[in-house]
Amino acid sequence: MSFPVLCQKVRSGVALSLADGLELYHHPNLLEVGALANEVRERLHGARTYFNRNLHINPTNVCVAACNLCSFSRRDAGAAGAFVLTVEQAVDKLHARLAAGDRVTEVHIVGGLHDGLPFAYFTELLARLKTVDASISIKAFSAVEIFFFHRLYRMSIEEILRRLQAAGLDSLPGGGAEIFSPRVRSAICPNKCGADEWLDVHRTAHRLGIKSNCTMLFGTVETLTERVEHLLRLRELQDETGGLLAFIPLPFHPENNALGDRPAPTATEALRTCAVARLMLHNVPHIKAYWVSLGLATAQTALWFGADDFDGTVSEEKIYHQAGALSPQALAPDAIARIVREAGRVPVERDTLYGRFSPAAKQEAV
Amino acid sequence: MPRLRLTAVSFLNTRPIVYGIERGLALVNHRFELRFDLPSRCAAAIASGDADLALMPLGSFADAPDEFRVVPGVAIASRGPVRTVMLMGDVPWEEMDTILLDEASRTSQILVQLLTRERGLAPGFVRAGHDRIADLVGDRRGALMIGDLCFSASARFRHVYDLGAEWTERVGLPFVYAAWIGRPDAVSPGDVALLQDSLAQGLVHRDEIARDWAEENGVDVELCKRYLRENIRYELGAGELCGATAFLERAQAAGLVGVGRKSVVRFFANEVRAKPASGAAPRSLDSVLSDAAAGVRLSFDDGVRLHDAASLCDLGLAADARRLALHPHGVVTYIIDRNVNYTNACTTACQFCNFYRPPGDSRVYTLSRAELTEKLQETVDMGGIQVLLQGGINPELGLGYYEDLFRWMKANFPIAIHGLSPEEIRYLAEREQLTIRAVLERLMAAGLDSVPGGAAEILDDEIRQRISPHKCSVATWLDVMRQAHSLGLRSTATMVFGFGEQARHIVGHFDKLRALEDETAGFTAFICWSFQAEGTRLPLRDDTTATRYLRTLALARLYLDNFPNVQVSWVTMGPAIGQIGLRFGGNDFGSAMIEENVVAQAGAVFKLSASDIEGYVRAAGFTPRRRNMRYEWL
After folding, report:
1. pLDDT at position B401
2. Do B182 and B329 sit in the same domain of this protein?
3. In angstroms, rounded to a whole number, what is the distance separating the alpha carbons of residues A207 and A200?
4. Is the pLDDT confidence value at B233 over 60?
5. Residues with Cβ < 8 Å from B145, sequence gap 6 or more?
6. Chain A partners of B616 at a C-beta cutoff of 8 Å?
């Protein structure tokens, strides 16, 4: 199909096919693809660019999965650098942020698959965080962790989710999706749950009223077809449930992990993937330029390649920094607003569910 | 005033150049006397004093005295297939044991010998008469053919090579066949303008010229039209100057022309009349963008409008289209060189600089010969071909220091010296009580190859007053570059933004560079980056982010329509943005830097090897090629 026909499809809101997705990847003019994604982005969100104030907590880096792509995990609780936060320590992190004057609206929790912790550890963690401030939204546990809990604690996925929800869980992060293709999963994360399980966790969550995000880790061993197929499966799920809030493209970072001999995907590839995702996932409302993974400069540029969300203030990111990410550990809301404004966009602070918005302060302190 | 005697060859491709002269344009009529002659005789006519100016083949120019000058803006050149300089035969180039050389063109003879050598081949070369050369081809005997003959002969042979295309594919630069050349006092700036007018008239009437020629010579009209429109290029800009120099140097190195002559090409003084800019009537932003993408010259006001109102994507798309038109091969170049900051002592005390130390400070250094030896040897060992030599304004170092340094470097290392920004050159002139021209001449004699475009920051005196009050003024900066270009030195031009300037300052900077380039064709490339504030004394919080850089880069590509190359600055902006910049107008990835000290002191700490650079370039969809300072592919 020719590119003008593809543009016509996009403008008339027709869902793109696998072949279209590949054409977007192969099209020689990156900026034409970017401009088309930008059209969709502006149709949906105008110049608005969302961000939130969030805190990352990684309860543990002990993990039985031993994925080749990971630089964060430790196989055994006794290994050098292995840690498990006590509930108290985790809650203290939130207290510390609030005491420092940060009006955090979301706590983002992901961790390793630790087979030595009781389920009560997690429910207590959520409940205790909620007692600090019930209005702070908790986005916790990737589908991979939920599925691991289901196996380890011998409860159905639904039961796990219901209990976590009762303890304070508000939404699920989008991690662990990597690439759905079994060929790729067996190469980069053979011990993680499969695509069907990942999708089933999200489907179940959506049924329980738990919204979620979704991701794609690109630049390891997958083909372009496998990337587009991944996006199509997410789109199918969204058609079914409508529970996905945002898609986050994640370029692979090669340092300190077993896949380290391959080059990381470059900035032009990240921008293209961002644009392709915006165009393929017409039913997912938001595309997030996660600055921790993309780097500030590329993330800012991505705001013109389909992305409408800059993620959050983050603070204390560990997973990508272990893999060589050069971005800062945290950004103040003013700094995010400034970068967004300098990109020619309008910064809007949001809550986790994109339900409440407040314009970012006009003037940041110099 | 005596009439000027001009000599030219009567080929189809010279017709547009002499069009106005032949038809006696109002003023031209009384000024010039035109005679047609054989190419080989054009040069002789100048030598014997029978003519003042000749439309001289480049091959003859190679043998002409150093002092000869070239009329700016007028040339017979190609950038790709030329169709009238061809190698033909029944066997491939590699299998030819003899190549017959058409006696009519010495330039083409040199070109085919050069290209044959560069392919690693060594057939015999034998001269043959133009009229019967095609009939002598056979077996393993090929022939260089030129002119109209190529149109008819190319169908007769199995293997046909277009030497214009071969040159550009190998070198990455245009090929210059001929230009108006004469003694330095031969023509006045007014004459230069008339000669440019004659060509301008001819270009308007290209189709008519083609038709007349086709009828007279019994050749296909469409063929002639396409030849004048698509194959021959008549401009003589920076790219063509670089191409001519590359040819002269290679020909000298191969012993095909006399050695000893400098391979620089210098212009006659020029009465500059810039190309008119578009934008008389108010137009939509879209039409400004599409015009700019098509190569129409932007007016100052349209530049400001694009700066303020065009979206990032739209600027990028237009700049990318322009880049593609100028660099259709999909090649992104880079150089291996080293920054050598020979001293950090500096009296200029610019607010934005974190590198300098005031003279007398305990941390002041000037590199010793031993330190330099180590750096230069390392550079050569890593495949480096150039040093970018820049330093502070150190009152202890006079012109003699630089002359000694350059001579020593040239005697000991096979390395080009891209050295001394206009500020350093201005200071030497002041210190030594010499003219800028005299300083440049002495530096050139000592080995200076080209001038880096530093110390430009923003070419606006108000802003310079604020951020670097002791640095050279705009007029001085431009004058140093003008003098350097007129001496045959090439230079780059830079811009650093993020000092709180507005659209009119940025576009004004571009405008000044563009006007000077119209005059001298001496700038090879433009490079910009944003101010790196960390640790400097300038308490600024201007926008220095990636998107502003990309917008500025794209606007530069569009506005600087006469600059052949635009570099991305990964050193300051980071490799990711450098790579993205290749889609926002950039066609060069700068340097695989072995060392950088100045912006590193202000927080920019990126480092890339040649293979890293090639990786980024390939991932962006381009083919990486190494180059030298002229952007000649290596």
Report:
1. 96
2. no
3. 10
4. yes
5. B86, B87, B88, B102, B133, B134, B153
6. 266
Q: ipTM score of the complex?
A: 0.89
pLDDT at B474: 97
Query: Residue A126: helix, strand or coil by DSSP?
Result: helix
Are B426 and B530 found together in one domain?
A: yes
Q: Are residues B456 and B588 in the same domain?
A: yes
Task: State how far the Cα of B211 lies from the Cα of B200, in Å rounded to an integer.
Answer: 18
**Does the structure show a pLDDT above 50 at A242?**
yes
Say whether pLDDT at B607 is over 80.
no
B92 and B43: one domain?
A: no
For tokens 């180039």, the residue is B93
CA distance, residue A6 to nearest chain B CA (Å): 18
Residue B380 placed within a domain: no
- Residue B311: list chain A partners with CB under 8 A: 38, 304, 344
Q: What is the CATH number of the domain that holds B91?
A: 3.40.190.10
The answer to whether B427 touches B393, Cβ cutoff 8 Å, is yes
Q: Which comes out higher in pLDDT, residue A350 or B257?
A: A350
When the pLDDT of each residue in chain B is averaged and rounded to a whole number, the result is 90
Judged by a CB distance cut-off of 8 A, whether residue B312 touches chain A is: yes
Q: Domain check: are B326 and B196 in the same one?
A: no
Parallel, antiparallel, or unpaired: how do β-strands B32-36 and B623-626 relate? unpaired
Number of domains in chain B: 3
Instruction: Round to whole Å and give the CA distance between A281 and A277.
Output: 6
Residues B58 and B203 in one domain: yes
Domains and CATH numbers, chain A: 3-351 (3.20.20.70)
Q: Which of B122, B148, B171 is the last residue of a domain?
A: B171
Domain assignment of residue B46, given as a range: 4-75+175-253
> Which of B311, B574, B619 lies at the smallest CB-CB distance from A268?
B619
pLDDT of residue A365: 40
Last residue of a domain, one of B203, B235, B253: B253
Residue B545 lies in a domain: yes
Answer yes or no: do A343 and B545 touch at CB < 8 A: yes
pLDDT at B602 over 70: no
A31 vs B: CB within 8 A: yes
Q: Which of B320, B576, B580 sits opposite A29 (nearest CB)?
A: B320
CA distance B53 to B74: 13
pLDDT of residue A364: 47
Q: What is the mean pLDDT of residues B266-279?
A: 74
B335 to chain A, minimum CA–CA distance in Å? 21
